[in-house]
Amino acid sequence: xxxxxxxxxGKLATGKDFKKxxxxxxxxxxxxxxxxxxxxxxxKHKTVEFKEQxxxxxxxxxxxxxxxxxxxxxSKRTLGLxxxxxxxxxxxxxxxxxxxxxxxxxxxxxxATLPLYLNALTGxxxxxxxxxxxxxxxxxxxxxxxYNALGLSIGVLxxxxxxxxxxxxxxxxxxKRSGKEEEDQLKLVPRHEAYLADxxxxxxxxxxxxxxxxxLVSRLQDRVQRGHNYAIVDxxxxxxxxEARTPLIISGSASEDVAWYEQMAKVVRQLNEExxxxxxxxxxxxxxxxxxxxxEELLNTTLRDPNRPEDITPEQARLLGYLEQALKAKLLxxxxxxxxxxxxxxxxxxxxxxxxxxxxxxSEGLHQAVEAKEGVKVKPENITQATITLQxxxxxxxxxxxxxxxxLTEAEEFFTIYELDVIPIPTNLxxxxxxxxxxxxxxxxxxEEGYQYTYYSYQDDxxxxxxxxxxxxxxxxxxxxxxxxxxxxxxxxxxxxxxGRPQLVGTTSIVHSEELSTRLNRDPLRLLLQIVLLKALWRxxxxxxxxxxxxxxxxxxxxxxDSLSPAILRNFAQxxxxxxxxxxxxxxxxxxxxxxxxxEENIPRLQSILNNGIKHQVLNALKHDEESxxxxxxxxxxxxxxxxxxxxxGVDIKLGGELDEHILxxxxxxxxxxxxxxxxxxxxxMETAIQQLSPDQYMEQTESVHEFLQFxxxxxKVRQIGGLHVIGxxxxxxxxxxxxxxxxxxxxxxxxxxxxxxxxEDDLMRLFGGERVExxxxxxxxxxxxxxxxxxxxxxxxxxxxxxxxxxxxxxKHLLEYDDxxxxxxxxxxxxxxxxxxxxxxxxxxxxxxxxELRRRVPASLEESHSTWKLCAFLDxxxxxxxxPALDFALPSYSYHLLAGYLKDNLTIAQxxxxxxxxxxxxxxxxxxxxxxxxxxxxxxxxxHTVLNYETQLKERLDNIETFLEGMQExxxxxxxxxxxxQELQSYVHIRLQINQNDLxxxxxxxxxxxxxxxxxxxxxLFVIYLNRIAFTIRKRVGELPNLEQLTVADADWxxxxxxxxxxxxxxxxxxxxxxxxxxxxxxxxxxxxAMNDILDLTSEKEMTTLLSNIAxxxxxxINPQNHQRLLKQVNLLNYVFYAANLLDEKKxxxxxxxxxxxxQSTSKLLSHSFGLFELSRLNQAEIKVNKLNPDIxxxxxxxxxxxxxxxIMESPIGELYDGLKSTLQDLIGTNIQNMxxxxxxxxxxxxxxxxxxxxxxxxxxxxxxxxxxQRDPLxxxxxxxxxxxxxxxxxxxxxxxxxxFRLQPVQRSSANPVEQHEGTPKSSxxxxxxxxRRR
Length: 1336
What we know:
alpha/beta
């Protein structure tokens, strides 16, 4: 791939593609005269003509020459700027979906208008991506007159703080003015309108985050983007390489409920050592079975369902999650080691550096658990809701292009990841020189310091005077240490600032920028210059001729400038009998001027530096807007600008200071008004032409003419002293970043130079070969303040940079390989969301999910012995019985459905009420007996499982005692006190031990009798703990057993325990069954009431459902834990699920699946009917007319009746329609509401499950690195596991949808009677028992 790309890079200069581009340029140039004759309206109409050509089957390449000619002409008329031929070349390259590498100052912003306009003609929208908000709005406003002249609209995206949290954006409106730059000529509009514009400007973050937000909304109309057709990325290397390491992430609060963190913190404080196990080395912690019992007692709830210990409910999983993090916070994270508490916040301490990391938070609720542990305010956890890497976002565009000044060094990465070729575009100056009709010659000569440079002169100039230049790139200078380097940089700044030459100083970090800025203040600068002066006077005093030799007596002066002072320098001067080192003395100033090569006429400026320091600006990437505006003036006379290497990208530095574009436009207009062609003029030509005009010839542009002429004075002044000088304070790890910094100088043929300063302490030098240079300098005892200047060093550094670039590319490629896995999943999930949002009817999708889940679950339940009850329990959970007598509404669960059929058959056989009542009592007794059998079997299995755990734990603890005591025998006598001995012993056995002092001493001495008693104590304690767990589980499953505490049994007599508990359980159920038969129970009374109300004569499924519900429902008095008042609480008296499961025993798999599907579909129809009924009633009460209905419903309603009938009733209130029409309308409304609910449930489940999946994938990515230790490829393992996790995700989405769609029901807010739910459905909180209060 790399070779293929490198070959493509050379195409422009030598290949057929270049000849093709040149041919296109000639066509565009040939159209220029024709387009100049067009009226403004005719030029604007060209856009209409081009669109018509495309609609008739034409393509963009066919209309490119005319489209580019139209843009060039619009630019000339509106901005006074004519696209050069090289700019046209750049436009063609970007239209073809490539990267145009163009030097700084070559007009990339103007170049982009060509392909943007051309591709916008498709009507699909095009995007211009910038590095910051300021450039987005600046470039949009600047180029807007071109687009407006051609009839196109321009949108601008800005950060959330300017756009109502991202809900709004801007359209360029050149008539709207404002005193605030960020609002000038920008009209606030809904965000989607900015995307509907023909061309949209914005940053990569705004485009990317809008894409993510669009895939979080639930309605199509809430989306803002309209696709990814074509984009040009400005400073493409910055965005697609430098920023590509950081993914775009939208996060939100996982839960506002933080009370559980505080609750669990209290729980873990009450746990005993035997309740948990933890491995500090591997940072693992877990509850023991004893601990689970203890926690269940403290919380008064079960952590696992005793009926299904292998399955835990979502609520139980949530509690276990809180508990796990609370245990980790207590046992694994120590205050003042892993974190500190500061200002009522938890601050993490970096485990490697010991530094504080404010703002960082542990994930997965751990930080909240530590906050709860320490009693500070618990803040909600944040979770990732959506994420995408910039690589994968920009790879979505149908066509992608870019422009930058430095892309060639990263060509392989651009091609490998984005399939983008990098095409270097020559500068306009170089291109012009190469043309046969060029009037320029190129020459080389040496400057006054002996450095060779390149310049241009006019061919007809016999003196070959310099008119244009190429940048002077001086060799790198390397110092022994950083201090010496900083001093040299400051002296270079002093030297050039004294002559007024503008300088741009690049740094690699904000910290380095601030450090260098401090050095340019008055006092540090004077101290440095005094050191330089002292050294010079010392050499003169002692006649030291070799200036490169170090002066041993002055070696301490090479220490940090902060450790020195003028007094120390004066002391050295006195010892050497040097008369004065005062910087106020004229002769000393002359010495400094001579040392720094400052001409005599500039000594007054040197004096100003000595008195005031150097005035300068400091810029960094934290202030995009400010830096972009300030850096524009970095070319002014005497300007010194310190900036991080990337600061101010996208803004040209013009010699003499900023020349506002509107000034240049008015100069062009003034010249055109006087029949002069300004487009091929240089600034000097324009200056001469303007000066030859009389003031009345440019009266409307007078102010702009004066500013332009002053700018030319400043420009000439700066050119004469060498133009902008760029100082690199350190080599960046990427060559192109260094090249970007250098590229600031010598814009468009201006003079300029660059030099990098290095030290052996710089990271690149330290890591890649700096020791060789260092040993060389030490060998020859070279003065630390003197450098090595050698081009070979520069080559060594570049080689090091290439290695680092390659390594960074591998890292980014590796990260992308991982993200590609997630990106495939993201694409599928977003496609599912797209279908859920756009598809009109989701019924088929929903029922496909339901059937898939049933075909997975039913066979599994039938294969497992005695597990059909789990299937019934699951179905009853997702679709509970719903009974609302007030609304005559009853929906049976699947268990009720099975039993209703059974009851109907048997009640039909029974002729009299007495027989029916007797049958129902037998039925209720049989239901109770089915539950008794299950509970008995379940408790029996629980006890057997407990015995195995008990024996395992007992053996482990007894073995631990022996191990501990053996170790103690080998220790020195008296090396451990009794208290410590007991504590360590308890930690070994995880049980609190009761040992008196006498026994403890004997135990320490190894007394076997005491050891035996200790083991018996452990056996007894462990037995009681496990016994309590069984009793606790039985109470939760069966309720209170009167004789449960009366069990007396010897330790570990588990057979007796089992017999006793099962006997007591059988007694309880037998009593309940006897009470049913005798009529003494609530169940029997409910049956009797049903007989009295003639319910037994009814035989429909709805009526059978009501009967089953009435029989099983009872009420108990309970205490409200919030206000401690008594209330009536509904309770279930019968659990039908076990008996219903028996009715499936004789059925085959497919028969069961079809029966469940038929039942659920019937339930869905009944719900749809109720939705329609409720909504129709509401519309009727509100007196809504037919024509005010939802448009979708109205359209379907209209198609179901004749046109004449529709016209007759459209103005009628719905309540006045006859029953047939009402019935039709009710069905349409019900179906519409149900489909809306389907959509809501499906989207919610996709969103929530996808968010969980993102968290799990991040955890997998972090942990998968351990696979390499097992000699397995982590990426392969990641792909395999992520595939399984994605399958689980889809299954969880199906299950989530299925669990919710049958629970949705209409709500009648005015109803006094609550809707009752049964079999696992949340109950109402109960009815409060009212008491009469006596009046006093």
